Amino acid sequence: MSTEKSKESRFWADQIASDAKPRNGTHVVSDAKTPSGRIHVGSLRGVLIHDVIYKAVRDSGQKAEYVYRFDDLDPMDGFPPGVPDPFREHMGKPLCDVPSPEPDKGHASFARLYAEEFRDVFEKLDCKPRIAYSSELYRAGKLNALIQTALEKAEAFNEINARVAKVKKPSGWLPINVICPQCGKIGTTSVSDFDGKTVAYQCNDVKYAPGCKSAGRISPFDGNAKLTWKADWAAAFVVHGVTIEGAGKDHYAAGGSRDVANEVVEKIFDYPHPYNFPYEFFIMGGKKMSTSKGVGVSAKDMGQSLPPELLRFVMTRYKPQTAIDFNPDGETIPRLYDDWDRFSRVYFGKETTRDPDTARIFALSQVDGHTPTEHFHPPFSFVAQLVQIPGVDLAKAMEKYKGESLSAEEKGELDGRSSFAKVWLDRFAPEDAKIRIAEKPDFATLSAPQKTALGEFADVFQSEKDQSAQSNAIKAICEKHGLKINDFFQAAYRIFIGRDKGPKLLPFLAALENQFVIARLRGQK
Fold first, then answer.
1. Mean per-residue pLDDT for 281-301?
2. How far are the Cα atoms of 7, 56, 180, 313, 359 from residue 10, in angstroms, in the given order?
3. pTM of the shown model
């Protein structure tokens, strides 16, 4: 069996674990998401990348923690599809203060509904970070000292924005938004004049929400306010002691948000910026996804279409700087299963590869602490064919394919793959992958040699169960009658499924009831 982590491996997560510097002997790996709607599957890439790094750090013998932040104090600044129209009155409010659009599910807010739904998905992928909600931290006063520092050093913020981001903020600008005490909105307020204890605020109209036009003074502490997002990002590094955190490549343009956050955390908050790296997008069919706009397949939907280890595998196998364009339509999912099975064979030393990271990727794609065991994997494409055959005994058909009995683990995997095969057939499979046994066999279009060859093969099929021997018999029959092998297979497919092409013929016939196959080959049924 291949070792999980070879000394020769240059797997990307192991490199980060080696290069990043811990703080006080411990690494804190972190990532974040604003729960502004049903979270799309693309957001899983950040979760998985950071989880793989966290596990690589632990495997290197270092202490590590993984923290995932939900930025639920952000304003509701987009209106995702599927949310009832009356919820537009909440535009501009903190997401944690917007009620859940699905109250029957028992979530306390809009943010909690979508955050917990997303959490359910990634925890099934064996990503189990400590969850932190920004609203709880702000309201518990955990950021008060950082808010004080940020407001006292507002001019330094302005200098960083002007120098790094080439953005000139207006005179008196402060890096904070308060929650309006009159209308409860955070996206509509502007602030000025920090006197050490309070700030002046005004609540005005913005592009996506009306303000209530109130004005006054308010304390920015204990959850009454939130730092502007680049300052908030930097503050999160400090609060959680983050040592490793990457982000999507859109944050890494020259003078972009990560550059600003790095400058702010070091120059304003006197904390070293975490090890940082960009990662490419996970897109679907060439389209970038958006949570607040409801664009793309949700993480929940994709989690119901693939087993957790394969969804984890999709994210783990590619370096962060490699874009992933995953289109589940067509043969993508069967090929993914084939790749998984191949990586398993490499892991157990049954197959060789030029990629030294293959075994490591397979090990890091396991879920729930599962230690891989060497066993037969029921081929997904064949499973997908079997589940379409009325009355078929899946286990017996697969045992014929394997040539011996299935273990308990193999039977469990067969059950799982058969369930996901039905999902694939229903949602993503091309039409030519869908099989229906022809009620009336198409013998009229067959030539006399084809009919004769099928009849002779019926005798072989009746007496010989070994598929290798059956294959040799087909070759001999075809040679005897001057038929091409393809002509024989075309004839068989026509009488069984009414098409010229189909699944691997011999395993397919073995899955059917013996007497039915024999009778149809002889033209009797």
1. 64
2. 8, 12, 52, 18, 12
3. 0.88
